[in-house]
Design a protein that fits this description.
CATH superfamily of the largest domain: NAD(P)-binding Rossmann-like Domain
CATH architecture of the largest domain: 3-Layer(aba) Sandwich
Mean pLDDT: 92
Shape: elongated
Low-confidence stretches: none
Strand order of the largest sheet: 14-13-12-15-16-17
CATH topology of the largest domain: Rossmann fold
Largest sheet: 6 strands, parallel
Structural class: alpha/beta
Length: 726
Amino acid sequence: MGGIVANNTYRAQFIYENLMIQNNIIHQAYVHGVKKLLFLGSSCIYPKMAPQPLKEEYLLTSDLEYTNEPYAIAKIAGIKMCESYNLQYGTNFISVMPTNLYGPNDNYDLEKSHVLPALIRKMHLGKCLRNNDWKSLRSDLNKLPIEGVTGADAEDQILEKLAKYGIKKEVNGEVSVTLWGTGSPYREFLYVEDLAEACVYCLQNIDFVNLITDIRNPKSEIKNTHINIGTGKDLTIKELAEKVKEIVNFDGQIIWDSSKPDGTPRKLLDVSKINGLGWKEKVNLEEGIKRVYQNFKMYQKIKNKQAKISVIGLGYVGLPIALEFAKQAKVVGFDIKPDRVELMKKNIDPSKELDSKDFEGCDILFTANVDDLEQAQFHIVAVPTPIDEHNQPDLGPVLAASRTVGKILKKGDYVVFESTVYPGCTEEDCVPVLEELSGLKMGLDFKVGFSPERINPGDKEHTLTTITKVVSGNDAEALHNIAHVYEMVIKAGVHRAPSIKVAEAAKIIENTQRDVNIALMNELSLIFSRMGINTYDVLEAAGTKWNFLKFFPGLVGGHCIGVDPYYLLYKAKELGYHAKMIDSGRFVNDSMGGYVAKQVVKKIIKQDKNPREARVLIMGVTFKEDVSDIRNSKVVDILRELESFSVGVDAIDPHASIEEVQHEYGYKMVEHPCGIYDAIILAVQHVEYKNLSEDYFKSLLSSSGLFVDLKGIYRCKIKELNYWSL
């Protein structure tokens, strides 16, 4: 599909390719029993001189517009094919006829584009010429050359090619943009996201039977069952051009070339059918064009490395984001710890999650200098949001990051928070800091969004680019542009949340749900332990039912599942509600470390050993398997509880840093097991621990020693040792 030029130039291609595509898809949908199909046509199916507004019943009542006749015939054939298959085969294929569409990521090729994207690009290029902004003009041509002419070509070649498409700069510096026709035809335009909503609405709420006017009369002719989708409002092309000129801020002259065809005098859809079925558009034309042009500029500047992205906080969340964007754009990566910055400059990930090759081909400046952030226009905050010693939210890092960004914030900038917070925190706590320090106002001067991180440390399958990204913004324009920036790197796509609070809440409940479910498993393990049955045996049997959710008992630490529910509890309490289930789940999970230690002590005593003389080896200290992160590790709860009984404890971990553990918890790990132990606690199922033999454990244990397998990975392998698991 395309505009007048493309339709008239590629007539054979338009009719052949459209017929081939739609015929194959519609027929195969019938063959394979597709329950519902939506066929998209075009408003060009209606006769050139049909009465306005265009009702569905006007189809095939007189001649079509010549310039797009082949394309229109193909689309009419698609409508009739769907209608005929419904009548003969009982399928449920719906045809919708959208009006002229516009929106982000449109086709801006001046040879093939529709009227609105062509106007936007012509006015934009005209503005660049008028302002003598050759950097922006060349950047535009590098992204989308015009007949092979790129930004690398000489000025005279560029000017010649622009002039061919009606963008001319006179000797006196004045710039004009020439447009086809007289500008008198009327056109209707629909924002593409409105069309998407309408299509989903039709699929979910409308069946073919709803579109038959006289279903009870078997002799009635069933036709024109397609649905117009539009706004029911139009304006002249001249009015549209003036509107685009104003939004783009082009102050040159518009010239109309009346020797070129105007096309159909008017195309306004009658949308009473779709309105009567319950759907209406949301985005008005001016707002939509502003969104499109803002996206055109923002995306283009970032993509063409004229605008930079900054990432504040380069931990296990921030660094992957920074590097992924740096493959597409210029990035400033900021961290408050100079020693970490120096490691990253050497292609070393301090969190040990990424390899040196992940740094290759990245256009990124690693820095601890706040002033470097002034270079960026799109700021991503990815700092930790921990809890304090009383399990209350510690907003210190995210507020500090807000102060940092607030000091360098400029008009037109975007700030997106990825740090997990309670619903309302971004707008109620962070935005006031940004406004106070910048002297700017959110919405008026800068935009804000929230896009919760979904990084799963140690997981090489579910990575940043392969996980759907939830995005949100303080208004529709912010949401629109934030979504498209993230779409540069997120292959799995983005989900547009209706508000920042919704996105914040979505992140909180993702981990709260897991926390509550794991708490149930932990509580079941306490009960089953008293019954003398193995929890994993029970779960394996129960898991044979199709709808049983497979969660497992264990320690719940780290900075997500073990922390996020406290943010929700805090907000609920502030609102006067005691979240009993969430609170109980937290109590159960936070108690598991102490429970495990007490069970070990009891079993040591049953062996007629004095706990004060006993030695225990703990294998694994990190908060989860195959990572180096020790923050909020619940293994430490086991260690401290054992030491409270004066048990001698050695701890080893192939991933954790001995220095970091000592600094964080005041405990010095050992590099290797030393001597004979009365109990071994396999606390973290690192890959290095998964395939050890029973003989290995026997070599480290006393004759009546206890092997504690928290995750049950050796449940069916240990035959001789005294074995216990959750």
